[in-house]
Amino acid sequence: MTNAVPPLHVALVEDEPALRDATMQTLMLEGAEVAAFPDARAALARLDADYPGVVVSDVRMPGIDGIAFFAMLRDIDPDLPVILTTGHGDIAMAVAAMKNGAADFLTKPYASADLIRAVRAAAGRRALALENRRLRQEAGRSAGAAIIGTSAAAERLRSVIEGVARSEIDVLLTGPAGSGKSYGAQAIHDLSPRRSRPFIAVDAGVLAHEDAELLLFGRDPAAGASGGGLSRTGLIERANGGTLFLDEIAAAGSVLTTRLAALVEKREVWPIGAAKARRLNIRIIIARLAGSGARDAVPDPVWHRLGAVQIAFPPLSERREDVPEIFRLFVARHARELDMPAPPIGEAQWRHVQSHEWPGNLHELSGYARAFVLGLAEVEAGGGALTGQRPLQQIVADFEQTVLEDALRRCQGDIAKVQAMLQTPRKTIYDKLAKYDLKPARFR
Known about the structure:
Blueprint: E1 9-13, H1 17-29, E2 33-37, H2 40-44, E3 54-58, H3 66-76, E4 82-86, H4 91-99, E5 104-107, H5 112-144, H6 152-165, E6 171-175, H7 181-190, E7 199-202, H8 204-207, H9 212-217, E8 218-219, H10 221-226, E9 232-233, H11 235-238, E10 243-246, H12 254-266, E11 268-269, E12 278-279, E13 283-289, H13 300-306, E14 309-312, H14 323-338, H15 347-355, H16 361-373, H17 392-410, H18 415-422, H19 426-435
Parallel strand pairs: 1-2, 1-3, 3-4, 4-5, 6-13, 6-14, 7-10, 10-13
Antiparallel strand pairs: 8-9, 11-12
Helix pairs in contact: 5-7, 6-7, 12-13, 14-16, 15-17, 17-18
């Protein structure tokens, strides 16, 4: 079985008509899709960062010469491969361009075989660069999806996480239980340069375990022979090169807290029975409870030594407009996990989702979504959890916004289809969209 050869796309820039036609014919005989241009200005009007192929350009051209053209293409996309064709007098210039990133250069007159070889090699690199770019974008979208919603709070969280992720700085996440700190930690790792390295999460269950020291720091092989146990690599050392996430760190005892503080400060792990510490290259993210009197949930010796950027995660009560979208996500996720069809969400369930305060935040909302998929979710008589904690006008407005968002999502932002689905005049639809700041393009 042979690998499929990627299609050739070539942008040919040559001011001599006869040579341009001959070169174009040579490339087309090799199956290439060729876009030919008489000068650089015409090519610049057509080329962008998404162009899937290779640029072949003469150096000596009227107006914008090949070297200036190459520099402009570098500004459009540094990964766009450019092959320069030169006369003998321009070789030094072409070599200098290659040092600045040009893919190749050919001296006129060049053999057709040399042109095809250079184009195929550059096209392979282009395909790889675009594939890597696509994978990075997908990783970014996936990681960004960890913070669901269109509220100002959600937008702010995503922006901060994306900015922090690109650096190597440690991070302290604060917020009430269930506010999404673990999702944020994973997103920071997935968007960071360490994304291909391990992400090790240490939660309260590990920290409170009777063998927590062994689980975290491991046991040296030398200790295994004399200390009554097998050698073991600890969770901290497994994170080497990647990210260590310490969640619910308040569960750690005083001895363990002291050792974790030393880890934060020195970036060293000292396995049980080891003769010396082992240096680590890790990024540390700590989750600290905040709110409800949890100010000191993380012992000062650990998080104050971290010297980290702090990101505050608000409770769901401060981002209520995001709750319906998050609920839909949880329903779809639990349906996949349980291998069950996602049931339609009825009016009573929507009223409950909108009106309930969700003091347990994402944990409680996820539990309700799972029960809903299993057919076990019950809604109180009268429409569900209308506790009187919010005005009726606000509850109605939130429900109306949810219906509009659901229609936009189903119709992929097509207003005519939304109008037909909701049987509502177009002007009323647009007035409601403006009221709730809903942009149809967001759903296309």
